[in-house]
Amino acid sequence: MMNILVIGSGGREHALAWQCAKDNNVKNIYVAPGNAGTALEPKCQNVVLETSDDANEHSAVIEFCQNNAIDMVIVGPEAPLVTGIINACRDAGIKAWGPTAYCAQLEGSKTFAKEFMEKNNIPTAAYQGFTDADAAKAYIDEQGAPIVIKADGLAAGKGVIVAETIEQAHEAIDDMLADNKFGDAGSRVVIEQFLQGEEASFICMIDGENILPMATSQDHKRAFEGDTGPNTGGMGAYSPAPVVTQAVHDKVMTQVIQPVVDAMKEAGHPYTGFLYAGLMIDKAGDPYVIEFNCRFGDPETQPILMRLQSSMVDLVTQGLAGQLPSDAKWDTRPALGIVVASKGYPETSSKGDVIAGLPELENSNSNAVKVFHAGTAFSDSDAVDNEKEVITNGGRVLCVTALADSILDAQQAALAVTGAISFDGAQYRRDIGHHAIARENAK
């Protein structure tokens, strides 16, 4: 019987823990630090590990694994990957799923990623990098708008500004380079050409050599309905993404994913773990990489894992052994997840608001809808689990995810459950999946 450690506290980690707990060979799943949802899952318990943001300082994780006979570590978020947690685990003889610090630079540095794509002929938008605000503004004046400004480092999915006007672009430069809005992440910016098309998320498992494409998905980054408002970490997602036809899928594999695997292997740093390519698909069906992430996307993980019928534990085990299969088993029905965010998100987040409507939902026998927790916690750490109130503890609070016969049915099922949940300032989009629903209606 296996013991698994899942690192992270969001909806992605709740979904990974939930999926792993389905495996009959799993005894215990520890989630560090987890959230209220992971604490309530069968076989799961939250643990607090004293971790450091310093590179290679992952001793608490190593010590916990050694003291608790951990058979496998699955790393959810990007920050520990960028600081080398996989390297540290491997050095200690611990099996851990994710990319090394070198490979994680694909997400940790926009400049590294763009230079990598340029060198390896991976299709992406034209760009320039800047540390000087005046030089950046001069480049913007020359290029015109719309234009995209990105903080170079990790900014929790919020360091991207799509400026519709020159003035907005200048304001973004001032925020990042002059006013330090994103801290070290924004001390350097990448300015990119604005690409037209439809976005899609293409996520794979890679063992250094073999590639297993996960089910396709589409994320909704903008805060408000109609894909308007500021960029967020993601307000919802659905799977599959109809824009990724078989022809597009083949192009992504040959023009994007395989070149990453080949180039990393050639550099002496084989890519292992999840790889996320955020794509723009143009009218001709040609993919361009908007960004790489070195982990499973959030909120794409939730609908994708609702559809996964293979054992995630088996897939990771095979990946760690360098024996990933080329495909997995999927529910043919689509899934859709709606993120419920706290008051003020994405600029701020509200903590401590009591969430109503969850106990009945969490005790439901229906597999068609699952409420994954992200920014949640318990109000009273001393109370017994069933007496604790669940409260908000971050920007994105929940992801209500439904599996149904069509994207529209999944959207309506998720909305029905979302409508029963309430807390002060709760906000969510009612149009998640609108691109796919328009395609369904056209048929």
Quick summary of this structure?
This protein folds into three domains: about 1-100, Rossmann fold, CATH 3.40.50.20; about 125-195, ATP-grasp fold, A domain (Dna Ligase, domain 1); about 200-440, D-amino Acid Aminotransferase, Chain A, domain 1 (2-Layer Sandwich), CATH 3.30.470. The strands form six sheets. The chain has a five-stranded parallel sheet with strand order 3-2-1-4-5. The protein starts with a strand and ends with a helix.
Gyration radius from CA atoms, angstroms: 21 Å
**Strand content of the residues, in percent?**
25-35%
Rounded to the nearest angstrom, the distance between the terminal CA atoms is 48 Å
- Major sheet, described briefly? 5 strands, parallel
Characterise the protein shown here.
It is an enzyme of class 6 (ligase). Its EC number is 6.3.4.13. It catalyses: 5-phospho-beta-D-ribosylamine + glycine + ATP = N(1)-(5-phospho-beta-D-ribosyl)glycinamide + ADP + phosphate + H(+). Pfam families: GARS_A (PF01071), GARS_C (PF02843), GARS_N (PF02844). This is Phosphoribosylamine--glycine ligase. By secondary structure, the protein is an alpha+beta fold. The protein has 3 domains: 2-102, 3-Layer(aba) Sandwich (Rossmann fold), CATH 3.40.50; 126-193, Dna Ligase, domain 1 (2-Layer Sandwich); 198-442, ATP-grasp fold, B domain (D-amino Acid Aminotransferase, Chain A, domain 1), CATH 3.30.470.20. The protein is built from 15 helices and 23 strands. It has helices spanning 11-21, 36-40, 59-67, 78-82, 85-91, 101-108, 110-119, 133-143, 166-178, 246-266, 301-307, 312-320, 358-362, 407-418, 434-442; strands at 2-8, 26-33, 44-46, 72-75, 96-97, 127-130, 147-151, 160-163, 189-193, 198-207, 211-213, 218-219, 222-224, 228-231, 236-239, 272-281, 287-293, 335-341, 351-354, 369-373, 376-378, 390-393, 396-403. The strands form 6 sheets. The protein has a 5-stranded parallel sheet with strand order 3-2-1-4-5. A 5-stranded antiparallel sheet has the order 12-15-18-23-20. Strands 6-9-7-8 form a 4-stranded antiparallel sheet, sandwiched between helices. Strand 10 (198-207) and strand 11 (211-213) form a beta hairpin. Helix 1 runs parallel beside helix 11. The protein is globular and about 60 Å long. Residues 361-365 have low confidence and may be disordered.
